């Protein structure tokens, strides 16, 4: 039996909210769609990763503060290999990403928060802003169907306007040291460990924000909670991969449509203040 930390063992909602006050002041996030959250009904939250993954805590803290629902993040392996960071993320409510942990959360009435794009979506390249990179994974879809819970897409929009990528993985892989590592077979072994082609390695880009500095521009962020997607009609097709992919594509399509809507909202948003407008133009 899997044991997961309960809410009384995690960071209190007010403490979490106050700790992120400077980030909220800087990015002025707007949370949309709160009416789509039902506190007493578990759901699987699914969101896109923004570049570098710097903004996901703002989403979780806002939902917790406004609704009392704590999205329970699912940690990739690399988080677990950093002792201090691992403990911090666990204190926020995150658990290791596994089928057993996701099921344990749902069985406990909790709502898992997953980012199917993983490391590759964190390490975007030029021209990939807000692009979903979900591969062929459907495990989280299957678990949602098996547990009869909804899937709630959350669009994270704005953070990738805060950076301009200067050098991405494509640039780095073409550098002499990286080409040498490729010839030595080192990159191939790393790629095999990640289960990807060398050209798809999740190499973090180097980006600039304000001026030539790495400080992100204070772009307003929009966190849009979309209407929950019911999974009941798929309950007898959980072993049908095509059906699971169709449901997954419904989730990704919802997010992509929301990105377009939020881009229109952003382009007409006048309530951002003079200084923010000056620094982001």
From TrEMBL:
InterPro entries: Plipid/glycerol_acylTrfase (IPR002123). One of its GO terms (molecular function) is acyltransferase activity. Residues 43-159 form the Phospholipid/glycerol acyltransferase domain. One of its GO terms (cellular component) is membrane. Keywords: Acyltransferase, Transferase. This is Diacylglycerol acyltransferase. It comes from Enhygromyxa salina.
């Amino acid at each position: 039996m899997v044991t997961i930390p309960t809410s009384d063992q995690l960071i209190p909602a007010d403490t979490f909210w106050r700790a992120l006050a400077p980030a909220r002041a800087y990015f002025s996030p707007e949370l949309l769609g709160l009416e789509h959250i039902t506190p007493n009904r578990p759901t699987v939250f699914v969101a896109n990763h923004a570049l570098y993954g710097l903004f996901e805590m703002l989403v979780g803290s806002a939902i917790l503060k406004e609704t009392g629902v704590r999205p329970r993040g699912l940690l990739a392996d690399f988080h677990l290999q950093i002792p201090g960071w691992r403990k911090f993320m666990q204190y926020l409510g995150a658990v290791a990403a596994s089928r057993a942990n996701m099921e344990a959360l749902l069985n406990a009435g909790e709502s898992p928060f997953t980012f199917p794009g993983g490391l590759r979506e964190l390490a975007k390249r030029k021209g990939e802003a807000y692009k979903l990179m979900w591969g062929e994974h459907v495990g989280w879809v299957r678990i949602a169907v098996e547990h009869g819970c909804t899937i709630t897409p959350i669009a994270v929009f704005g953070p990738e306007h805060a950076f301009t990528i200067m050098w991405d993985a494509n640039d780095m892989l073409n550098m002499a040291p990286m080409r040498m590592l490729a010839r030595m077979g080192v990159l191939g072994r790393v790629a095999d460990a990640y289960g990807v082609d060398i050209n798809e390695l999740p190499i973090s880009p180097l980006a600039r924000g304000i001026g030539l500095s790495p400080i992100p521009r204070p772009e307003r962020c929009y966190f849009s909670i979309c209407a929950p997607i019911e999974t009941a009609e798929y309950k007898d097709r959980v072993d049908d991969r095509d059906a699971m992919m169709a449901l997954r594509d419904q989730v990704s399509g919802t997010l992509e449509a929301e990105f377009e809507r939020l881009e229109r909202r952003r382009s007409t948003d006048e309530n951002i203040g003079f200084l923010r407008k000056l620094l982001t133009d």
